[in-house]
Hints:
Blueprint: E1 2-7, H1 11-21, E2 27-33, H2 40-54, E3 60-62, H3 76-79, H4 101-111, E4 116-120, H5 125-133, H6 137-140, E5 143-147, H7 163-167, H8 169-176, E6 182-185, H9 187-190, E7 194-195, H10 197-206, H11 208-228, E8 234-235, H12 237-246, E9 251-260, E10 271-274, E11 285-291, H13 293-305
Parallel strand pairs: 1-2, 1-4, 2-3, 4-5, 5-6, 6-11
Antiparallel strand pairs: 7-8, 9-10, 9-11
Helix pairs in contact: 1-2, 1-11, 1-12, 4-5, 5-8, 10-11
Residues 8, 10, 12-13, 37, 121-122, 238 line the site of calcium ion.
Amino acid sequence: MKIILDVDPGIDDAIAIALAHKWPGIEILGITTVGGNLPLEKTTDNGGKILKLLGANYKVYPGMAQPLIRELKTAENIHGPTGLGYAQLPEGKEYIADKHGVDFIIEQVNKYPKEITLIGVGPLTNIATAIKKDPSLPQKVRGICVMGGAVFTQGNVTPAAEFNIYVDPESAEIVFNCGAEIILVGLDVTLKVLLTREHLEIIQKKGGSLGESIGEMTKFYLERYLDGNKLPGCALHDPLAVAVALDKSLVSMEKMYVGVETKGELTRGATIGDKLSRFNKKPNVYVCTQVDSNRFLELFLDRILDHTN
Ligand code: BDR
Ligand code: CA
């Protein structure tokens, strides 16, 4: 399977890239970056650093710096001023391509029709812009797997909204209604896959140099979670979206109409799942409702600790 990962690294984005990189049998065509957890310049630099750490044979394509119509809101409070927690990684500028991320998505999807899964784990500005520029794109992708939203649970930026959708609700609305097969991996499931201190110790002990760097990032992220969320660990949001895109059997899903609130004052970016078809609209999104957390965590650790690739 061919994938393009659209990211805003960001600690859990960085771990998601590592997980995809170590997933057997898939081909990563490239990474596109977007303004989100940090401004675009930093998410792109971080993308380059991570690809260097992984020794990747693909590149980072910088995409959109700002949401479609709103000012960018960032999340350094969760990811740290560099976006990678306590990790100090060497620069990876040689991994940053000249081509724009949106053009890269359009080019690749047209080159490999029906073969590419887009995995969006940041605000959806790049994917929405690609759809606006090339309206045939939704028919040509294999599917789009999105980390975003909170259909049945409370949000994490406001009570109503999850970060990625909150930052650029207009883009989310375009993507959800584009006609492609959309899978939504929201807080409903990502808050159930928690990495604890014990997991972190295993990664640091057994993960070699990649494990050390992931450990330095994750220590920071875990501290924010233990302080702020009263959860026993930190949520592996973006890694779960990668895993679901590649192995749907990890989750249960329900197809329903999901609308994005773009006008509300208190509810900006809320993802409203019409489970009972009250709006009478055609279901547009597969919403992940349950996750096999133990199986995901086992699989995650196995892949991250695998030294053969
Ligand atoms: C999402 O917000 C970002 O901070 C994370 O990287 C993840 O994509 C979780 O709400
Ligand atoms: Ca992200």
